[in-house]
Input
Amino acid sequence: MRKNTITRFLHVQLLIIILLMIFLPLTASADIGPKPSLHIIAENMPDGVCYLDLLVNYTLEHGRPNISDEAKYDPKMLDILKKYNVDGWRPAMVTGTRVPMFGDIICDVKDGKCTMNFTYVGVPDEFKIIVVTADGRTVVSNVVNRKAFDSTVNFDFMTGEAAEHSAILSYFLQFLFTCSGTLVIEGIVLLLFRFNLKRNYKPFVAINVFTQILLGLAIFTMMYREGIMAALWVYVPFELIILMIEACLFVKFLKQHSETRRVLFAVVANIVSFAVGIALMLNPALW
Output
C-alpha cells in the first residue's frame, strides 16, 4: 500500500512538472484557451450587399484596424463607417480594437437575411450593431450587453432591435458541443494508448463529463459576472487543475496497463483536445 502511494505521488509530481513545461510558455504568449465568439443573425435586411460592424464606446490609443485590403470594399460605404462616431460609439472592425477581433463587415444578404461571425479576444462585452446599405442608409441597434461566451444575437434591420439568445441555452449548447468533441478526440487517444474501450468506456465518459461540467461552470460564472477577459484568465489555471484531476481519476479507475501509461494518456489526451480546440477557434472557416 505504501509503495503504491509513493508511486502515485511521484506520478502526480511528474505530471505537474510536465504541465508547467508545456503550458507556461504558452501562457506567456497570451494566445491560449478558448476564444469568445459572436454570431449575429440579421433579418429583414435590404437586398444586396450591406456592411455590418460592431460599435464600441471606448477610446482607442494603441490598437489596430481589424480589416485589411480596403480595396475590396466600397469606398463610400466604408467611409460612412469610418466617420461614424456618435456619443463615443465607433465601429470596431473599421476603426480598431485594443486587442484583435476576427471577422468581416461584408454582409451578403439573401432572402432578407444574413449571418455574421466575430471571434477572438477583441469581441466586446458591450456593443451596438451598425448596418450601412448600398444607398447610404445607416441603421444602429440598441446596446447589447452580452452574457454568453459564445453568443448568438438576433438583429432586426427594420426595427433596429437586437437581442442576445438565452445565455443559459448558449452555454448548454456549447457544453454539448465541447463535451462530445472532447469524448471523440480523447476516445481516439485512448485507443491509441491501447486501452480496451469496452472495459474502460464507463470511467472514461464519466470522468470527462464531470470535468467538462466543472470547466463549463467556471467559465460561465466568470463570463456572466466579470466578462470575457476574466473568463479567459480563469480558463488557463483551471484547465491545469482539470488535467490533474483527470490524471488522478484515470489512474484510479481505468483498467489495464500501468499507472504511468494512464497518466501519460491523460496528459496527451488533454493536449490533443486542447490543440484541436485552439485550431478551430483560430480558423472559423473550419466550423
The two ends are 49 Å apart (CA to CA).
